[in-house]
Design goal:
Elements lengths: L5 E5 L3 H13 L3 E5 L2 H7 L7 E6 L7 H11 L5 E5 L4 H9 L4 E4 L4 H33 L3 H11 L4 H8 L3 H15 L4 H10 L12
Parallel strand pairs: 1-2, 1-3, 3-4, 4-5
Helix pairs in contact: 6-8, 6-9, 7-8
Length: 212
């Protein structure tokens, strides 16, 4: 099944770009081609959403691995599938460590190419889904009042209502009301889910203490 997304093909060989573009379009993909890494950087929109990059390793000007570095600095979520005419173990290892999705050697079969693109798009979808969850959790925690946030911090540190009441100088009944609001606003049903949110947002340190 073809996932939505634009495939960006970066290669200085015009005939190769044309052949790849034709092959991918026949498989149902939208394609954009670029003769250089700089061309891609100039045309890539800020926050480009779904898609992936097919990137030649050795291109004039900015090389494939150098482009990968620039995109990483921008915080790009576009996965990269490298293509090369001459496989080189050191380059392969370096680009994979830097987050490349795959490293294919030319000539590449249609099956290899489509498999690599589908894996890249599926992984990107998983990354974007996790990012959406993170943003949703951050937004829900931000909706808490200062007192509710205090209660949230104490709950995820394992404090019971009586301890929380003592710490913030109120009654257990008031803490129960705040606790209910915290659970409602963060849209969770259990303390375990609250702890998961705190961990996901980096609000708990290794000792279980809350951060800022």
């Amino acid at each position: 099944m073809t996932l939505p997304g634009l495939v960006h093909v970066v290669d200085d060989d015009a005939s190769f770009r044309t052949a790849i573009e034709r092959r991918l379009k026949l498989s149902g993909y939208d394609v954009a081609t670029y003769a250089s890494a700089q061309h891609l950087l100039d045309r890539l929109r800020e926050g480009e959403a779904r898609g992936c990059i097919l990137l030649d390793v050795q291109i004039p000007g900015l090389s494939g691995p150098e482009l990968q570095g620039r995109l990483n600095e921008r915080g790009s979520t576009l996965p990269i599938v490298f293509l090369t005419g001459h496989a080189d173990t050191a380059t392969t290892v370096r680009t994979i460590k830097a987050g490349a999705e795959d490293f294919l050697t030319k000539p590449v079969s249609s099956e290899q190419l489509i498999d690599a693109i589908e894996r890249a798009l599926a992984r990107q979808e998983a990354v974007l889904s996790e990012r959406r969850k993170l943003e949703s959790s951050r937004s829900r925690v931000a909706s808490l009042t200062p007192r509710e946030r205090q209660v949230f911090d104490l709950i995820v540190r394992g404090k019971i209502n009586k301890q929380i009441a003592h710490e913030i100088g109120t009654t257990e009944r008031t803490v129960k009301a705040h606790r209910h609001q915290v659970m409602e606003k963060t849209q969770v049903d259990s303390v375990a889910e609250l702890v998961l949110i705190a961990e996901r947002l980096g609000l708990l340190d290794a000792t279980g203490e809350t951060r800022g």
